[in-house]
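pls ignore typos typing on phone
zinc ion + seq
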Amino acid sequence: MGIKIAPCVLDADLTRLRESIAEVEEAGADVLHVDAADGHFAANLMAGLSLTRAIAECATVPVGVHLMITDPLRYAPAYVDAGAQVVIFHAETVDDLPDAVNQIKTSGVRVGVALNPDTPPQVLAPVVGRLDCVVVMTVEPGFSGQGFIEKPCRKIPVLRRTFGSGIDIYVDGGVGPETAPIVVGYGANVLAAASAIFRADQPPGKALRRLRRAAERGIMKSSDT
Ligand code: DX5
Ligand code: ZN
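k done
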């Protein structure tokens, strides 16, 4: 299964948004990851609708929004209207997960559910076969630049077995050249990364390519064993 890279574009140089997006797209970004936080579910304020719309207007690859917000069903349609083609919300924020997935699917977008580090994978049992992606958080949601927590990665093999090879399993939080081979070894295939791409010791395009190479080494290693 091919590795996909999802740069967290809010960490790009937003004063030159179009160029920043073009740079990571040229380097092979598969989907742009736009983090949204409401100051309630996650203690940060990020990515309002107008910024999402501007990102979508500059993008040539799909835009995915990661809604770290208390009321995803209220705001998802507006993010779709702003150009999101993938909507990811948190399992912890809804009472009726199958109903939430169905409601968002009616907008015609791809749907994903994110799990906080301590949320067990079994909460997704009612939506097996209904999701396009699952996001395994390896930091508490809210801020880029946090340290990678490996323990949540133990959910990945369980999710892979349950959901099969057709689903995208993201890891989000602290993913960089050192941790990418680890998460890929557990069975993830999409790497969401902010710091490793936009705050690296090399320009974002080069940093993205380095991240992909590191992840591909992880695949080779896991197929050796
Ligand atoms: C965490 C966000 C992430 C974050 C990743 O709250 O969902 O997408 O920006 O940042 P890094 O890659 O720096 O951990
Ligand atoms: Zn995210």
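The first strand starts at residue 4 and ends at 7. The CA atoms of residues 154 and 186 lie 7 Å apart. more later
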